[in-house]
Design a protein that fits this description.
A hairpin with a 5-residue loop joins strand 6 (185-187) and strand 7. This protein has helices at residues 3-28, 37-112, 167-174, 235-239, 264-268, 304-313; strands spanning 118-121, 125-133, 138-146, 152-156, 178-181, 185-187, 193-195, 200-201, 204-205, 217-222, 227-230, 243-249, 252-255, 258-259, 275-280, 286-291, 318-322, 330-332, 335-336, 350-354. It has 356 residues and is an alpha+beta fold. It has a domain at 119-354. The protein has six helices and 20 strands. It is rod-shaped, with a radius of gyration of 49 Å. 37% of the residues lie in helices and 26% in strands.
Length: 356
Amino acid sequence: MNPIQFINRTMMLTVAPFIGIVCFLLYSQLSIQLPDLGRYAKTEFSIQYQLQQSEQKLDKAKADAAETRVTIERFYQLYEKSASDVASMAQAADSVVNRPAAIFDNRISTKLGAKPAKQTSSPNLDLKLFYLTDPNYKAYALKVDAKSDNALKMVLGNDKVGSSETTLDAARRYGAVAGINAGGFADDRSGKRYPLSTTMLGGKYVYGFEPSFEDLAFVGMNSDRKLIGGRFSRQEDLDKLKPNFGATFVPVLLQNGIKQPIPAQWQTSPHRAPRTVIGNFKNDQLLFLVTDGYNEQGGSGATLEELQDKLLQLGVKDAYNLDGGGSSSLIYDGQIINRPSDGKLRPLPTHFLFFK
C-alpha cells in the first residue's frame, strides 16, 4: 500500500463517526427544547408585583396600627375621665348617704345639750359618749351605731354559767372598747350568780326558754343587729324575731314611742336609783343611759318615769330597763365612767360589750 492510500483510509476512519452522527440527526427528527426566557421574565415580574403588594399591605398595617394607637389613647383618656367622674359621683353619693347620719347626730347632740365627751369610729361601729346633767340626776349617754356583726356581743361572767365578773374585767378580757351591764341575776346558796330567766348567747338558750312572769321582759339583739324585746309566753314568738343574744330584767319602758305602764312595785321600790337603760332610734342605732345614785335606798338617782320622758325627748322608739342599783356599770377605753353606788363595780353574770 502506497502512502497516499494509507492516508485516505486513515481520514475515512477518522471522519466516519461524525458523518454517522450527522446522518442520524438528519433522519431522526429530534427536537431540542430551548429555555423559555419569557417564563423567567414573567416569574420575575410576579415576584416584583408581590413585593409591591406586600409593601402596600405593610404600609396599610402601619397606618392601621397608628390609627388603632390613637383610638386606644382616646379610649384611655375617656376611661380616665370616666373613672374620675365615677369617683366624684361615688364621693358625692357617700356624702349624700352620710348626710342624714350627720344631721341625726347633730340633732341628738343638741338634745343632749353637749358635744361628745368621747367617741370611737371604726368599720365595726361608731360610739359617742355624752355626759348629762339633769336637775334630778346625773347620767351618761352612750350612742351606738353597730355597722357589722362584730360590733357588739353579750358575754357571761368568765364565760361560765353561774360565774360572775365586773364589766371592766370582761371588757379587758375580751379587748372591748366599751361595756355595759346587762340583765338581772339570782344567787344560789353556794354564792354562784346565775342570769335571771331567759338568756341567750349565739342564738342559743343558755338554759332553756322561760315564759315571762312578774313583769320580767327579755331584751337583746337579733341576727340583723336590731334591738328586740318584750314579754313572751311562748318560745316560738321569741324565735320569730331571730334573737342572737339577750338577757332578762324589768320593766319595758317604751314600745313604738309610747310609754308603757310602770309596775307599782318599780314605782316606789326604789323610787330613785342608779339605772341602766337600753333603747333604739328609728334608724336602729342604740342608746344606753346610765344614771348615778349614792345607794339603792331610793333617795338618789333617776325614776323610771323620768327616764321615759328623757328617752322620748331624745327620739327613742323602744326602751327597756336593765339591771340597776349597784349593778349599773359603764366602761369606756378601760375606764369606769359612772360612779357605782357600791363604791366599786359589782361582779355580774352578763355584760354587753362593744368592739372596734
